[in-house]
From TrEMBL:
<feature type="domain" description="Insertion element IS402-like">
    <location>
        <begin position="10"/>
        <end position="87"/>
    </location>
</feature>
<protein>
    <submittedName>
        <fullName>Transposase</fullName>
    </submittedName>
</protein>
<dbReference type="Pfam" id="PF13340">
    <property type="entry name" value="DUF4096"/>
</dbReference>
<dbReference type="InterPro" id="IPR052909">
    <property type="entry name" value="Transposase_6_like"/>
</dbReference>
<dbReference type="InterPro" id="IPR025161">
    <property type="entry name" value="IS402-like_dom"/>
</dbReference>
Length: 119
């Protein structure tokens, strides 16, 4: 694994991600084809796109899988609510370690329903 991949998706984050990613079918029913890009390669590319601000099409080839593969997996994982489950797992892990500081949280009106017209 490259230094860039280790920085974007450290081993500890990868272990948390493995808890929430849905299992995949590794054997293609029709046979043949290219090898499936690893989930870790794809996750690293997704983190790069999310943190760099580049578009999917601008994804550098250094990450391995092509941008359509990365985007397709991102869409599949989004539909499967992987990101929400990962967020919860990370919060649970940090909470168990006592590393959450809830004195610095923010709630906005989009997150909390205003009953009776917000009165």
């Amino acid at each position: 694994m490259t230094i860039l991949a280790e920085r974007l998706v450290p081993d500890e984050m990868w272990e948390l991600f493995r808890r929430v990613v849905p299992p995949t079918e590794l054997i293609r029913p029709q046979g043949g084809g290219r090898r499936r890009a690893s989930d870790r390669e794809v996750l690293t590319a997704i983190v790069f796109v999310a943190t760099s601000g580049c578009s999917w099409r601008q994804l550098p080839p250094v990450f391995g899988p092509a941008w359509p593969t990365v985007y397709r997996r991102f869409a599949q994982w989004s539909k499967a609510r992987v990101w929400a489950r990962l967020h919860r797992v990370i919060l649970d892990e940090l909470g168990a370690r006592g590393e959450l500081d809830w004195s610095r949280c923010a709630i906005d009106s989009v997150s909390v329903r205003a009953l009776k017209g917000g009165i």
